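Annex B.
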Amino acid sequence: MELRTLGYFVAVAEEESFSRAAERCRVAQPAVSQQIRSLERELGEQLFERRPRSVVLTPAGRVLMPYARDALAAVASAKAEFAAREGVLTGDLTLGSVDGVEITPLPRMLGTFRSRYPDVTVRLVGGTSSALLDQVRHGALDAAAIAHPLQPLEDSLGHRTLLRDEIVAVVRRDRREARQTSITLQELAGTALISYGPDNGLHPAIDEAFRRADLRFAPAYATNDVALLVALAVEGVGIAVAAGADPEVHLDPRVIAVPVTPRIPYRKVLVWRRVPAPAAPLRALLALSEPYLAE
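LysR family transcriptional regulator: predicted structure tokens.
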């Protein structure tokens, strides 16, 4: 079992395509297909289910995936460690990111990181908080910027705070509620709400706040596009409930952000696995993050 073949296997699984995996690995598609067939013969099981427009892992492929990722990560970490010993940091750093991290210190951190460690390849992957957190747990991502879940993170995960913020009500200025100093959850429950979908990382925090007040959080319109949330509020569809620090909330003069009572605070955090120990590129990012972030 060759390391290169495992790299092809992971690429096909993540891209769900032999052609896209070949482009990613910068080889011809027949070479990838041949290596995967050779690996399947070696293991005695089919690793992919070939579909008309995509390929997906078989049960055997899902069993192999964590071993393949661990093997690739171990080799990459070893290379990075020895490069770091020579004073030149190399390797790869794969970071997950939810929407909205542009208002956190993360872009500045990555700018500094790029200037100090130009030989490290940084790859950004988008997604929802829950999906990205699972990828960190399983080693598919080195770290991810996500909304902190309601439950505490397990001890095997490290995290630092990127942003502390709270949920606000976005109200059209000609509505009565726009003249209030705050809006209660009871008032919000009695109007048409516009807010995030269930897959958004902030949805659980809002839902939990309503539940504690014996109210039901049931948005009439659900979208993770904050610009659309605001646009719907402008058009009189209802009151939007969104992150107060999001720039979209404050761009349109026809709406105003009103505090919510009781407060619904949330955090965005950078999260990573403590075990196995972070590789050199992630350690370098965490080290330079100290002036920006807190535990």
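The domain at 165-266 is CATH 3.40.190.10 (D-Maltodextrin-Binding Protein; domain 2). The first strand starts at residue 48 and ends at 50. Further annotation is deferred to the next reporting cycle.
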